[in-house]
Amino acid sequence: MNTEEAKKITLSLIDTFNKASQVALDLRKIGLIKEIKSDNTPVSNGDIEVNKILTKKIQEITPNIVIVSEESANHKQDENLKNFWLIDPIDGTRDYINNRDEFTLNAALILDKKPAIGIITAPAKKRVFYSYGISNSYELIDGCEISLIDKKKNYNELIAVSYSSKLKPEILEIHKKYKITSHQKMKSSLKFCVIAAGEFDMYVAEPRACEWDIAAGHAILEHAGGKITDFNGLEILYGKPEFKNPSLILKNKNIL
């Protein structure tokens, strides 16, 4: 797939993401119906409705590409997937349910096991991010496409985002290596976007979560000049057994 094809697919999904974002907010305002899944994580009717909206449109645009979603059993047992969509309808469901604002909607197109397109919206923050190739990573602000690769830092210190307020020694060691001066807790895939935008510099995590949690953010950050590896410096590929993530180090272009 060339850049123009990827751009066309990406831009054709923005309106659908905005619609799904509004549906997520509207359902939360009415009052969500909540359940606990077999893995002891929460799900709501908002997650399910967003999943329906996103998968329907993606199937229309790319009918021959498999979709793997957190909220669907389809294709989760498939082996040797190389080209497929990864969807996390709502990442940060606990924040979503508890009326916080960091939850996100996510979709990524994986080609040859690597993220080629990423789309993330943060509805409660009114932020929209997308990318479709190297140097083609953007935030949509008031209808204007702002290139993330051109954004400059407006601070001198290096600040990380973290999954927890209390960090394990091995994560603190990596922070020390890169001269990180402070860290701020952030749970959803918004962390990839704010690192890509130069608002933060780094994120380090031990193996946790699944590929649909990180794929869209991976595309957006990498296409904005950042880098994502495991603790051994190895590239992150997709379609792994059970779609499990390895350890992660996210760095923006300021500290490569």
Question: What is the share of helical residues?
Answer: 25-40%
Uncertain regions: pLDDT < 50 for 5+ in a row? none
Largest sheet: 7 strands, mixed
Count every helix, treating DSSP H or I runs of 4 or more residues as helices. Answer: 6
Order of helices and strands: HEEHEEHEEEEEEHEHEHEE
Mass-distribution shape: globular
Write out the strand line-up for the largest beta sheet, numbering strands in chain order.
Answer: 3-4-5-6-7-8-9
Give the rounded overall mean pLDDT: 94
Quote the beta fraction: 25-35%
CA gyration radius, whole angstroms: 17 Å
The SS-based structural class is alpha+beta
**Ends: how far apart?**
28 Å
Count the beta strands. Answer: 14
In words, what does this structure look like?
The strands form three sheets. The protein has a seven-stranded mixed β-sheet, with helices on both faces. Strands 11-10-12-14-13 form a five-stranded mixed β-sheet, sandwiched between helices. A two-stranded antiparallel sheet has the order 1-2. By secondary structure, the protein is of the alpha+beta class. The two termini are 28 Å apart. The protein is 31% helix and 27% strand. β5 and β6 form a beta hairpin.
